Amino acid sequence: MRILLVNPNSTMSMTETIRASAQRVVLAQTVLVARTVAGSPASIEGHADEARAVPGLLDTIRDAEAEGAQATVIACFDDPGLGAAREVARGPVLGICQAGVQVATTIAARFSIVTTLPRSVPIIEDLVDAYGATRQCRRVRSVNLPVLALEEDPSEAFARLRNEIRRSAEEDGAEAVLLGCAGMAEMCLALQAETGIPVIDGVTAAVKLAEAMVGGGFATAKAGSYAFPRQKTAPAHCSA
């Protein structure tokens, strides 16, 4: 089984962090193909960053499927370009926010999400609503750190995450917490051990769901919304 794990931003060290976290949980026969989208923003922090990352993301998915990838995981919690990616892909495409929400609603009746910057909160709230989990998601919290600070100052990031996870349980009544950034993946197990609360990493959730979908023989439906994009040619201009 061959799964594409694509980091939509251009920070290669983050791609390696994400790959290492996913590699710990995949089956022995699963081959992870980790790719970084060159030319995209260094981190995805808002709608403009998402828009700039999507063209390269789609090209990466097309190339990986041509090389044999059977499923794709988009390793950014904003799930950038998810619908477009499903149009260009034959295999299933999973966003780590949607996958994390699905796992959270399966293992807990109430959960909270902890993300990076405050500006990401409304984006994630809208995603949770679109995924039908508004009632179960009690709150989206922020540690008020940029995405790249997760690598630049991991000790500070860990401390802030730990504190927000504890507040999620105490103040929100959360029974589990979903980490709201792919760059937090490597901290998941340690955060769970320190807080005693189930902590979900969307990368792990998406990769395991991808394995299950490939194993079950599922592919992206092509009869309607996710049909392949139509090929178009620009109309010839009439001469004056």
From TrEMBL:
It is an enzyme of class 5 (isomerase). It comes from the Bacteria. Its EC number is 5.1.99.5. Pfam families: Asp_Glu_race. It catalyses: D-5-benzylhydantoin = L-5-benzylhydantoin; a D-5-monosubstituted hydantoin = a L-5-monosubstituted hydantoin; D-5-isobutylhydantoin = L-5-isobutylhydantoin. GO terms for molecular function: amino-acid racemase activity; hydantoin racemase activity. InterPro entries: Asp/Glu/hydantoin_racemase, Hydantoin_racemase-like, Iso_Racemase_Enz_sf. Belongs to the HyuE racemase family. PANTHER family: PROTEIN DCG1. This is Hydantoin racemase. It comes from Gemmobacter megaterium.
